[in-house]
Amino acid sequence: MLLSDAKAATLELLQTDLGPAYRQYVDPAGTAKDPAKFTLGGRPARVVGPFSGYFPNVNRAWFEGQAGLPAIQGEPFELYVFFIKAKGSGRGKKRVEGPPSYFIATVEQLRGWVMEFLATHGDSHANHVDWRCDIHLQETRSAIFRWGDEDPALDGLPESRRIRLRNVSDILALGGPTPGPDVMADDQLEDLVEDAARNDPARWQQVARRIRQGQPMFRKELLYSYAQACAVSGHGPEEVLEAAHIRPHAVSGLNASTNGLLLRADLHTLFDDELLRIHPDTLTVWIHPTLAGTPYWELNGRPLRQRTDGKSPNREALRERWAPDAPTSPGARSEQPGART
User: Fold this and answer.
1) Do 6 and 45 meet the contact criterion of CB atoms below 8 Å apart?
2) What torsion, rounded to 10 degrees, do the Cα atoms 202, 204, 205, 210 define?
3) What per-residue confidence (pLDDT) applies to 202?
């Protein structure tokens, strides 16, 4: 597959995943020396296309215990972007079919995998500039990264090799651009809303742009993480599910999905009004006692649904919302506030 085709297909997928925020975070232009490069979140990225496996360029300084960025044609880059063609992996009942996808690895992540390999297999590959690797689909959104000389059966690979595909939001959350006028904190947004209320058209355009670019991607990540079902009730449909922020003053734009919960619209309202909370340690639901006797009371003490990617909501953010009037143990007796009777 030509690198130009791999880059074009990758950019198309990124445009789908980022929606209106694509232009803010992606500069598709390559360089004169290397057209397979582009810029993602202000960081130089380089597409790695599938041939017979993948051959990501590495830095020989890594084998001497140094860090350093890899470079192609003398131009360093910080992100590896692996384009994955539509294909299946595995055999028989274990075969997994997958649509076109991508996986973005930071230089630090790939260097760590190189070091893991050397620790096990020695430095016989130290002089290889290009290392062959494969990406084995496990589900449509997850895979396992394997160096070519490692066991094709994937036995004994470190847990760090289990990767999430189409992970652009993770990368931007880790190393995105410094927040600017279109990516701002919620307290800044409140100031803009007040200005907008005073009929300032320019300010209102900033508010509208922030909402358009941040919220759709945030919701899309949560829909994936909670398998299109409410994190509390377990129900949909998708049309009534909303992305709720746990920490109100988190930086917006493309928020980390661990700072969010996918909630049914009415439960989102209860969450914002602090009538529904999540215990930061047990991840169980707490309903305010004023709602005793209502259908919402049935949710009290229920465990939060697990995410499909194995991650947990940000416990520190949940702790900030865990007010003094809530019990220390959501499953406690009825004499404690909010407990199940």
Assistant:
1) no
2) 130
3) 57
Q: Residue 136: which of 119, 157, 117 has the closest Cα?
A: 157
- Amino acid identity for residue 200 in this structure: D
Q: Which residue positions in the chain have pLDDT lower than 70?
A: 65, 87-98, 120-130, 140, 173-217, 248-256, 324-341
Mode of pairing for the β-strands spanning 43-48 and 79-84: parallel
| Cβ proximity of 47 and 10 under 8 Å | yes
Please answer whether residues 52 and 18 qualify as being in contact, where contact means their C-beta atoms are separated by less than 8 angstroms: no
pLDDT at res. 87: 64
Helix 3-18, helix 168-175: angle, nearest 10: 80
CA–CA separation, 255 vs 169, rounded Å? 8
Q: What is the pLDDT of residue 328?
A: 53
Opening angle at CA 94, ends 105 and 308, nearest 5: 50
Residue 117 CB coordination number (10 Å):
20
* Contact of 329 with 280, CB cutoff 8 Å: no
CA separation for the pair 161, 339 (Å, rounded): 42
Residue spans of alpha helices (H) in the chain: 3-18, 22-25, 107-121, 168-175, 186-197, 201-225, 265-272, 315-321
Beta bridge partners of 143: 137, 163
Kindly state the tokens that stand for 256.
Answer: 């980390």
Return the C-alpha torsion angle 61, 64, 65, 66, nearest 10.
Answer: -30
